[in-house]
Amino acid sequence: MPEWNKPLPSVVGETKPYWDSCRRGDLVIQKCDDCNEYQFYPRGICSNCWSNNIQWVKSTGRGTIWAYTVTYQNRTLGFAQDVPYILALVELDEGVKMFTNIVECETSNVQIGMPVEVTFVQASNQISVPYFRPA
Amino acid sequence: MVDLKRGAAIVGINEHITRYSPDKSELQIQGESVIKALEDAGLTKNDVEGLFTASSSIRNSGLNLADYLDMYPKYVDNTTVGGGSFEFHLSHALTAIAAGRINCAVITYSSLARSGGVSVGTGGVARFGHPRLDPSPDSFEELYGLTTVGLYAMIAQRHMHLYGTTSEQLAEVAVAIRKHACMNPEALFRTPITVEDVVNARVISSPLHLLDCCVITDGGGAVVVASPELARNCKQSPVWVLGVGEALAHQGAGKRNLMEIAAKQSTNPAFAMAGVTHKDIDMAMIYDSFTITVIETLEDLGFCKKGEGGEFVSGGRLEIGGDLPINTDGGGLSSNHPGMRGIFLLLEATRQLRHQFEGTPRQVANCNIALCHGTGGALGSRHSGGTVILGRD
Ligand SMILES: [Zn+2]
Prior knowledge:
heterodimer, A: mainly beta, five-stranded antiparallel sheet, three-stranded antiparallel sheet, B: Peroxisomal Thiolase, Chain A, domain 1, 11 strands, binds zinc ion
């Protein structure tokens, strides 16, 4: 496992199933049993109807790039030495968008609308971080 | 609803002209600004009943400011929604005054973003001093090396993708505002620039170049707001609050299309309250954290159609003498941007409506009605939008 010097996510009750699934190599999102809406980022309440009848469902892990930027300057430890890197909003097949980095992709090749799929990088014993790569 | 139009007026202003101030505290800059703004109005400490302030660095900023200046306000508002907080403050001061709770309010702000070495746009998660990621949303966002500029850059990239907007069109915004900065002796950058200068500058976060991004300075200012009765007895002719509107925008649990920004919601209430149309606006102060912010804001305020902002900002339309002069002080792109800039929009609009620059190139001719729109936060994740329409007597 390579040394991880980027910030690590904090895990709490409402987000633990997400990070547990990531560790197993599955990307999960939430769906409300009352209004049938998906939501992301995970939370303990359905943001649409305010029900707490939320289920975790496995995402296809596939989607398209909705927006991106190639970042050339970030002074934060862990990112400063990573530039240029691709920051993106990926729209999953299920219709929700999530922030991510596009990896295994030349910065000159990235495009809006490009199909991508999830891939995980182990950051610690507890945390695997979902990234996306060209599909 | 109670008719709020002309329910309060801006009667005093002060801009702390410092751009670099390593020897003063933020509270001192606020204090000096408040004192001079009250002098400008012809009012005193004892007239102030409401205290409005926001800060990203002073804890409990209203409480600490009241302590520092030994004030006992009976109305306090610490609304902090990013750089546009001060348009919200004016909206709330109007409401408090119209409701009869107070007759006079002070809005103030300061920051040492430059002398403190704050990486406002490119500091990532550490930019506001947070040592670790909150469970949400940080753990799903900052984990990926978000920067403020990156969150605007993504919107710019998509704007280009959807509408064919070009880097040259973004640059037009920076060029027009720099032209205005050249007329402001206090502005940080006063050398003219060209479209080529902007597009040839290094890329910070694609497609935004260095000159698409605001400057980082120290600074501060204050605005005194008064009831109509009090305003009539002040030294300066009143600048009336004609209309206000507020909005928050966010990802909507991953489902909102953030190409539509908060301005889309805040604009109609402000125009309806003011009873004016876009054609009546003589000049505008549009929060210019980045060039894309101006294009998106002008579109969603309704000055042009969605997607046509790139064309709209071209050909000198935004320059003094053009159809819609904006940011006549040089804006955040060239004059100053101490962390949050919303208060400076109110200051320059008031100067223009007072015809303070009469006889100089900086004055917008026949300036009777001005619009300010403050944006706080980041277009690509979550942000606020506060629209204010002001008019002279
Ligand atoms: Zn629901």
